[in-house]
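[Automated response] Your request has been received and processed.

Submitted sequence:
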Amino acid sequence: MTDPQTPSFGGAAIVQRPPAIVDVSVLVPARDEAESLAQFIEQCDVVFRTRAERYEVIVIDDGSRDNTWSVLEGLRAQYPFVRTVRHRSGRGIADALRSGYLTSDAGILVFYPADLQFKPEDIPRLVAPILAGESDMVTGRKEGKYDKAFVSRIYNGLSRTLFQIPVQDLNNVKAYRREVMDDQPVRPDWHRYMIVLAVAQGYSVSEIPVPLYPRNAGKSKFGLSRIPIGVLDMLAVWFELRFGRKPLLAFGILGGAMFGVAGIIGLLLLTTRAGTRPYWTMIQSALTLGSVFFATGILGEQIAALRAEQRELRRRLDERASDSSSDA
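Generated structure:
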């Protein structure tokens, strides 16, 4: 059980440690990964001891039903660089990464799974281009046998075509500057499109090959039900990037098209003098849909204006916080 004095937010219990100066925070979402965590942290310890940069590992227990949390408590007591966050129920990788980000101290964040399909020895390779100032974000390109390779190829191919992203593997282990996460929208499952959203914000992205190994224990959380969800999320991200700031542009085009259809049918009726009921029904339907599209676009513009004000307010608050820390 979590200490009652442990602070929490959004149902996540955070075990805090005294502030330490770290360069890299490794964020590790874990759901029912009790069998892998000890070996994962042990390998992290071996790697981190040889590095000049300072690391912390933040493991987010995302509503595990096994003894993941008790394993984490033991690891936290054994390894000073381990910190933990607990979600009472499963909230998904995107929420887990955000909880880890809010708990972290470093200027560079790394998304890494606990199942040992990727070895901790490759974490410094992901971080190196960022530390060298060569890139804002580095993603790994899977090398090795992959059970979901067919689905992954389709997803990556569609994403590259739709978003013109200069990397081959979008949904994999990655390292990124903290400010990349600052600019990410708080949306479930949108961690898959972190690279897309970062590129749209002007951040630079590079890619390195990362070996993929067989899962150490447990089973994959991926199911076929994720495929339609992923496709819909992809369309949502595309709409957000294309029309998020100007929704009336999209809905106005659709509304104008419906009015145009109504006008064309009306002209045909006037010239042919055919007063059949189906044509009048089509005109009424097109006018109604056009009006709905325009009304939706106008409402969207109001929402977009509010979001712009929120972004500006957040920017000003960040500037004040930065100025305060500089004065201190």
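Summary generated for your ticket: The beta strands are 8-9, 12-15, 24-30, 55-62, 82-87, 108-111, 137-143, 174-177, 205-211. The chain has two domains: 8-241, 244-320.
If you did not submit this request, please reply to this message.
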